[in-house]
Specification:
This protein has 12 helices and 10 strands. By secondary structure, it is α/β, with parallel strands linked by helices. It is globular and about 45 Å long. A 6-stranded mixed β-sheet has the order 4-3-1-2-9-10, with helices on both faces. Bound molecules: D-glutamic acid.
């Protein structure tokens, strides 16, 4: 079984990492569109063109399914892709539903890219959730993640600026996969009481259902320190095969960073 995982950049590595733990026998191709990141500031036409190119690349490589590990790409392009390609395409959306389920009367913040925040998909998700979350775009976090700038005071300062110093949320939805690489900074700023929710586990569960692979408590295994299994991943940057050892180590380091913060 071969699974294509797509993101504009390194954010989707968080989904890849969890998928590797939950589907240790699968082969993966990770496609990061490093030539065009960030998507959060592109037009819908550009995003569709880039994602279409990437998915056709993955299909030519023989993947059985594609995970769009990118909320922004899903928001704009998932309908188009499902029309065009016959393999299953699993998208991602901000995990608002789980946040509302856990905190039905709670105060919820959804942070994502500009494109996701202003998109029709999020509007209808909010409507069907019956909730009234605050919405904040945080484009700088995408840039910081791409530059591997973690654990710096600027991130917490940025969260303070963006939220106008509000911290009293019951749940914060990390609606961009890049943001999952900053769980430590979100935790530092919002404190212990706030539930930090990303859509990664839900996405992996969906891919397992699509592939007909049985349930297993993989998140618990990951949280209990199950490391990444042997690498069965090929990485591509906008179609170019990544072979440099230092680069491969960087990507694996980012995956490990995410796994180490699952319980944070
Ligand atoms: N990681 C992407 C997401 O989940 C998008 C980041 C970007 O390219 O702006 O939305």
């Amino acid at each position: 079984m071969k699974i294509g995982v797509f993101d504009s950049g390194v954010g989707g590595l968080t989904v890849l990492a969890l998928s590797r733990i939950c589907l240790p026998d699968a082969d993966f191709i990770y496609y990061a569109d490093e030539s065009h990141v960030p998507y959060g500031e592109k037009t819908a036409g550009e995003i569709i063109e880039y994602v279409d190119y990437a998915v056709s690349f993955l299909v030519k490589k023989g993947v059985d399914t594609v995970i769009l590990a990118c909320n922004t790409a899903t928001s704009i392009a998932v309908g188009f892709l499902r029309e065009k390609y016959s393999i299953p395409i699993v998208g991602m959306e901000p995990a608002l539903m789980p946040a509302v389920r856990r905190h039905p009367e709670g105060r919820i913040l959804v942070c994502a890219t500009e494109v996701t925040i202003h998109g029709e998909k999020l509007r209808s998700l909010i409507e069907s959730s019956g909730s009234d979350p605050d919405l904040i775009a945080m484009p700088e976090l995408v840039r910081l993640a791409e530059a591997e700038q973690f654990g710096i005071p600027e991130t917490v300062k940025y969260l303070r600026e963006k939220t106008g110093s509000a911290r009293d949320y019951d749940a914060v939805v990390l609606g961009c996969t890049h943001f999952s690489l900053f769980r430590d900074s979100f935790r530092q700023y919002f404190g212990r009481e706030t539930d930090l929710i990303d859509g990664n586990l839900g996405t992996v569960k969906r891919i397992k259902a699509v592939l007909g692979v049985g349930e297993d408590p993989c998140l618990e295994r990951a949280a209990a320190g199950a490391g990444l299994p042997d690498r069965k991943v090929k990485y591509y940057f906008s179609g170019s095969y990544v072979r440099r050892k230092a680069e491969l180590e960087r990507l694996e380091r980012l995956e490990e960073r995410y796994i180490s913060m699952i319980g944070v």
